[in-house]
Design goal:
CATH superfamily of the largest domain in chain A: Aldolase class I
Shape of chain A: globular
Order of helices and strands of chain A: HEHHEHEHEHEHEHEHEHHHHH
Largest sheet of chain A: 8 strands, parallel, barrel
Helix content of chain A: 40-55%
Radius of gyration of chain A: 19 Å
Strand content of chain A: 5-15%
Number of helices of chain A: 14
Oligomer: homodimer
Structural class of chain A: alpha/beta
Number of domains of chain A: 2
Chain lengths: 324, 324
């Protein structure tokens, strides 16, 4: 059991990362209205959020710019149109996927960019490519995190080898990413112990990005913060792929640091997030996501089920249980 | 951190209690169709659920039988119409509220009844009345639990005094009831320690009934079972007052005892629960319940907000924060 002080007091090192545009963009192909993005930025400022992630730095030779909104590519000038010179305490991040980003060209020097943090997303089997991206970003002057995806499928030995390699890079933060929403808090606690061991050895921080397939995104996030994880991803109304993420409004309500305020989050949801839902953008916990989470599978079959407007949950369960 | 064995193995003493008709009845005034109730009973049998709660034993002199469905009153003959002589492993329970039940008259001898378990629901300030009900039920031959509601508002000293009194009664199970959905898993762990101390002293079991105001009903339930709690309340699709309860489909997916099966739960939801929602019965996590949970308030204002079809979440937040 954790100490009561952890709940009543707060750890100043905690950082809240708003990933609404980035993970939420996965459900509307990054087509956010400009006034939405501006309001989100202002909300994050008022709510005391530490980082706002604008989207991906996706390779335009790989993805058609006519088939996605601009936040899939996050050109620096598009960010500047929202944040100006961003003379605030809110830092700006983008995500760069291993194998889907022309990082040497598209990520500029930090001194010329509104971006503060590059988040390198990788699977365990592409760590050397991630290392190259981390070094590139660090050399350009950025803060860097490494987000290791699909961690519920990792062998602990492989994870230890990866953290050993990453520990020797200039990366600032190791991220636990439960892409499948498959993990229970007890498992998060054990996994956090492994991450914390290497974070202590190499003087890094640890972050968590959770998914809500089993209604545990918030629970897993607060489990992790109780175990020493400092960087916490959240999205307004849980907007994100499939079952979505840890809800910003739950997290801000929980955190005790008086710099965080839940009321701006509620206002933003009231005005903007519910409108998105009414317009037909679909995300969030539902039975099909429970099933893929429970079975520790990628949610793509469940996302397809949702897209097709299917409601035959029992038939879907038979399909996902049967597939090898 | 809990032991890995707790997650991979299982504790045979765990009991799952389906409270769908009882807590769910609070959102549709107990008007369930007969075929729904029959299908629920058959589902619980197939899913390996241990207890099925049919509803309340409410006092007919206090509540108008024309204004509620029959499961608010749970006449023995109505239960028999569903379960026959119930020659199964599934036991039957009803809830009896302190002050709202004519228990001496309405609860018959167990040998003449299909009911196995009487769950006495009380607040901390009505323990002597609860004790009288517990003794009445035990004397009639029933298993008995005592469900202490609104526990997030309890002083630990008062709780200890209550458990000391209840320990000396024939009650079988002490229940933790987070009526306001206000508690975090870390707090559940600490509260469970107090309950377990008295359970050990008096040879009782401990149960948990959680609410989902902060999307923690399932997380709090699995926290509690990891801490030694054996009796776990759940409802299909989380159906229950306000934000609802721990979802049966999440709990059955989590529990490792092979007697439990999640597939019948999915089938039942597919066929019956989604139909209820389509018919306009409303429950489940929403922003107004987050707010009352966060503020440790009774959800009645949030329920009223829902009933009125209001969507002005920010205005509601101002109201609940402002009220003394």
């Amino acid at each position: 059991m954790k100490e009561i002080a952890n709940l009543m007091a707060y750890r100043p090192g905690v950082k809240v990362v708003d990933a609404t545009l980035r993970d939420g963009g996965l459900v509307n192909d990054f087509y956010f209205q400009d006034d939405f993005v501006k309001a989100l930025y202002l909300t994050n400022l008022r709510a005391g959020v530490d980082y706002m992630e604008f989207g991906y730095k996706a390779d335009k030779e790989m993805f058609d710019v006519n088939k996605f909104g601009k936040w899939k590519f996050c050109d620096d000038e598009d960010i500047r149109a929202v944040v100006g010179d961003n003379a605030t305490d809110l830092k700006i991040s983008v995500m760069a996927d291993v194998g889907r980003c022309n990082y040497k060209q598209d990520i500029l020097l930090r001194k010329d960019s509104p971006i503060d943090l590059i988040r390198v997303a990788t699977y365990l089997n592409t760590i050397p490519a991630a290392v190259d991206m981390i070094e590139d970003a660090a050399n350009k002057g950025y803060e860097v995190s490494c987000n290791i995806m699909a961690i519920s499928n990792a062998q602990e030995g492989d994870l230890r080898a990866a953290l050993e390699i990453l520990g020797q890079t200039p990366v600032n933060v190791f991220y636990i990413v439960d892409s499948y929403g498959a993990m229970y808090p007890e498992q998060i606690a054990r996994l956090t112990d492994v991450y914390m061991e290497f974070a202590a050895k190499y003087n890094k921080k640890v972050g968590i990005h959770a998914h809500n397939n089993q209604q545990l995104a918030f629970a897993n996030t607060i489990e992790a913060v109780g175990d020493g994880v400092d960087w916490l991803d959240a999205t307004y109304s849980s907007m994100g792929r499939g079952a979505g993420n840890c809800a910003m409004e739950l997290l801000l309500g929980f955190l005790k640091n008086p710099k965080y305020n839940v009321y701006p989050a509620i206002q933003f949801i009231d005005t903007h997030m519910n409108k998105l839902k009414e317009e037909g953008v679909v995300w969030g916990y539902d039975l099909q996501y429970l099933m893929t989470g429970l079975l520790n599978q990628h949610p793509r079959t469940a996302i397809q089920f949702t897209k097709e407007g299917r409601k035959d949950y029992a038939e879907f369960y038979r399909q996902v249980v049967a597939q090898d």
